[in-house]
Structures
1.
Amino acid sequence: MNRKILTILSDAKTLRKKSEPFPSVDEWGDDEKNCIKDLQDTHNVSQGLGLAAPQIGIFKRAVVINPRVIGVDGDDPVVMVNPTLETSGDLKTDVEACFSIPGGVMGKVERPQKCKVTYIDQAGASKFLEAEGYAAVCLQHEIDHLDGILYVDRMGPLSRKMLLKKVQKIERFRSKGERLAAEMFASDHAEISGSGPSRKKTTYSKKRKPKKRKPKIRKSKKR
Ligand code: ZN
């Protein structure tokens, strides 16, 4: 099931909650299977680089990663249950975006450029992955969500304040635009269905008859 993605504007506190680990594979029930299914479905609709269970309101330790990000073949998002992360390498600043920070904004975050992840896949098998560069950044971003950490929490206080102000401003404009569009639609619809205010009848003038032109008579040249 495609679920609504929680955002920092309405669910800032909820997104900061720490998620609970999945039980061992033989204890997976409907809750665990539905969590994986909803994460995959929501990711397939949102078409991002990754998504974490708490972003769709499920506080269990599971994320999905776009297979292209980590160089895996196929279209199905890679499911990582109970992922554990070990970072290494130089720190580098890169831009990040997140469905939970709406408005299409991006922020600069400094992160280690290498990581190792161990996790359980959707079939219950233990897996291990090493990543570098932007793949390592994406994995860290998604796994951070499981500990209630958003990328803005890793920015400096001033940059974070400015970015969140920008998000609020964009969302104010967006909701104002949506409200205006809804009002215009309602008013147009009322007029079409005849329930709206009556329009003045417009009278059109009769078409002018084309003027009759006198046939041109060629004057013969005098010789
Ligand atoms: Zn995110």
2.
Amino acid sequence: MKTRLIFLGPPGAGKGTQASIVSSRFSLPWLATGDMLRDEIARKTTLGIAAKNYVDDGKLVADEVVNAILKERLREHRNGFVLDGYPRTIEQAEYLDSIVTLDKVLFFDAPEDVLVERIINRRICPACNAVYNISEYKPKVDGVCDRDGTRLELRSDDNAQVASFRIKTFWEKTAPLVSYYFEKDILAKITASLPFDEVTREILQVLESD
Ligand code: AP5
């Protein structure tokens, strides 16, 4: 079983949704740099204050800032993790290579119209980071998290304009990682436009193959 995993893909592809499933199923920590940054922003830490405008505008936060947060969180989990949203640049990937050896990188591939629709329909729980969708994966009670009863929110960067910018940024800055990991022979492509269960099935096949 592969345990040191990266979920790579454009915004809205379903990385967080599937990372949550894989993390519970295999008891692997789910490390999402977007959630870490939103947490710093909500707590108004120095780092959060510095990162807020970048995240709201859909721009990448500086490599050295994200690398430092990641290194701290990864310290206790060197043997297994699901990394969601990191790395996003070649510099971040090289930094990661210097601190850990990866087993598999899953590239979540989906067309732009699917991504934008998913992003604008998403609602998140600010307390536990659970992810919902107002069209297909609704909470039991409208607008309230199933797990802890917290009122669900729209992310500050989840509007059509910022979503398109984030997708463009993905293709400019992050997509080169697809070739980077393909050349290392650890890349697998996932058809992320499929329904939830089918995407999960594809992922499990990759993770459980030798
Ligand atoms: P981050 O939080 O990482 O956002 P992202 O990469 O843009 O990805 P998303 O969270 O939008 O999408 P996802 O693929 O996780 O989709 P999800 O599962 O939620 O980053 C936010 C910001 O932080 C960045 O813009 C940047 O500013 C900063 N940042 C973060 N990491 C950084 C880094 N390493 N370096 C620099 N800056 C960094 O699903 C989306 C919706 O679709 C949900 O509603 C879900 O219910 C639904 N859905 C999921 N799967 C399906 C399916 N199969 N069928 C139908 N609906 C589905």
